[in-house]
Amino acid sequence: MSGSVADVRSGLPAEVADLLAPPARPWWKWAVSDRAARYTARIMFLLIWQWAGTVFDDIPTPLSTVEFLIEEFRAGEVWPNVAISVIRATIGLAFVLVFGVAIGIAMARWWRVRYFLTDLILVGITLPAFIWALLVVMWWGFSNIGPIAVCIVSATPQLVVNTFQGATATPGKLLSMSDAYRVKNRRQFRWLVIPSMAEYIAAGYRSAILAGWGAVLLVEWFGNDKGVGFRAHYWYDARSFDGMMAWGLVMMLIILAFDRLVMDRVVTHFRRWRIGGQQWS
Amino acid sequence: MARLVARDVMKVFPPTRAGQDPVVALRNISFEAEGHAFVTLVGPSGCGKSTFLNMVSGIDNPSAGTLEVNGKAADEARIGYVFQDPRLLPWKTVIQNMEYVLDEGSHEERVARGREFLDKVNLGGSAEMYPGQLSGGMQQRVGIARALAIEPDLLLMDEPFSHLDAITARDLRVELQRLWLDTDTTILFVTHDVLEAVLLSSRVIMMSSQGRVFRDLTIDLPFPRLQTDRDVAIQQSEILELFEEMERPMVDA
């Protein structure tokens, strides 16, 4: 595997490495950088939130939200409820990955499967998770099956659509090259078809995670006695704005952390060959 | 080395719209090539040269006639193919692209073999790079190394230098002559560039725009040849005159 630019530079003579060094930037350039834009947005969001919380009685401030969350930690409510929601979402999203990729590839590979499933996938995309959530509560009551099932039916279609697009976008010229060289089907699938789809699958799974996580929370809100969604609903019933906002913050932090720590890295991994090209030019 | 036999090969493409006639791309192509030969099909764009190469490789099938390589159907033969564009897997490194087409031996043996042939085209130092990090000429050299690494019965080359700048293409033509002289490979090359055909080939098969073979010439000049050689220029003029003679009756009509 090719090393990073820094690795390559470390082996070069000093005078060549100097030529490759980035140009010196004046300190004020930081103020107009992309990083500055991100931090400015975050600070502004907090300031507006603080202002709104101060002006309107029904809106909690960032400080009161954090204080409430600390109280929930002390009461031992945060970790057990976060754990159960994350476990439900993990199980559901594991099924989504398997079903979504398999169905997407099958739809691209066999036209009968495509025509059989097209309308069903469309229904899956358009039917709101809200309807599914009510249905599963009526069918299975306060069980683990409901959140997992809604996660699967809500998120799978998103991944199917992206995987299908990726499978149909596999370059025909590379397939004919493989046929001319008599490359075995199994190797073609592993080395050519799957990598050509990887970026599509990663992008589809990213939106599937958002949809699946939202679905789990929705079912917990409507009909469950454990989980982050249930806890938010509990404070809604108690008419505690601080409580609702605190658990909303938990929902957001979990998905943000997963997206930044896991999905960003996965997408970067699948795009590393493009980055290699960009470094050269 | 290979023995390629084409007998009355025809290719007809069906009409793409109602009311259109079928397109006859190739008409009764027959020739044999064997041994350490560099055979070039030369003709105007659209005369069916690449279609013929695709049928030899087994990617496509003839509508009529037979194609055999070493007495076997073409799609059973071991074929190396260098395309107009390099057709490398962009998400795999150069050495992984070499390994992709090699099916014999362990992973280590395949990598060693890939490196051996990358060295032959002076790209040993680029084995760990991605294709996107290489220039067009370097990518095409990887394509040539990949084709040679499988030790093909027959090496097919479809206008491999047509997308390159003149200077890179000139250097690669010299390099290709060296590689061919160092091996005993049979090469079937396709081009519309008469100078390229004369420069590289031991034999030139001329095709008309109607998809027919109308002349089969032996190029009896010593290798290695250079674009600046006087004899190459003379032979090029003779072939261009033959094309002109062949096309003239149609222009007059």
Which architecture name of the largest domain in chain A does CATH use? Orthogonal Bundle
Number of helices in the DSSP assignment of chain B:
7
Task: List how many beta strands of chain B DSSP finds.
Answer: 10
Q: Radius of gyration of chain A from the CA trace?
A: 24 Å
Q: Major sheet of chain B, described briefly?
A: 6 strands, mixed
Count of helical segments of chain A? 13
Q: What is the CA-atom radius of gyration of chain B, in angstroms?
A: 19 Å
Textual characterization of the structure:
Helix content of chain A is 81%, strand content 0%. Chain A is flat and about 70 Å long. The relative contact order of chain A is 0.10. Chain A has helices at 5-10, 14-20, 34-55, 62-74, 78-109, 111-126, 129-140, 145-168, 172-180, 185-223, 228-237, 241-270, 272-280. Chain A folds into two domains: 5-55, no CATH class; 76-280, MetI-like fold. With 281 residues, chain A is an all-alpha fold. With 253 residues, chain B is of the alpha/beta class. Chain B has a domain at 2-78 and 183-252: P-loop containing nucleotide triphosphate hydrolases (Rossmann fold, 3-Layer(aba) Sandwich). Chain B contains seven helices and ten strands. Chain B has helices at 49-57, 94-101, 107-120, 136-149, 166-182, 194-200, 230-252; strands at residues 2-13, 23-35, 38-42, 64-69, 72-73, 79-82, 154-158, 186-191, 203-207, 213-218. In chain B, the strands form two sheets. A six-stranded mixed beta sheet of chain B has the order 6-7-8-3-9-10, with helices on both faces. A four-stranded antiparallel beta sheet of chain B has the order 2-1-4-5, with helices on one face. The longest helix of chain B is centred in the C-terminal third of the chain and has 23 residues, at 230-252. Chain B starts with a strand and ends with a helix. The A-B interface holds A 1-2, 173-174, 176-184, 187, 191-192, 195-196, 198, 270, 273-274, 276-277, 279-280 and B 54, 57-59, 78-81, 83, 85, 87, 89-93, 96, 100-101, 103, 128-130, 132-133, 150, 156.
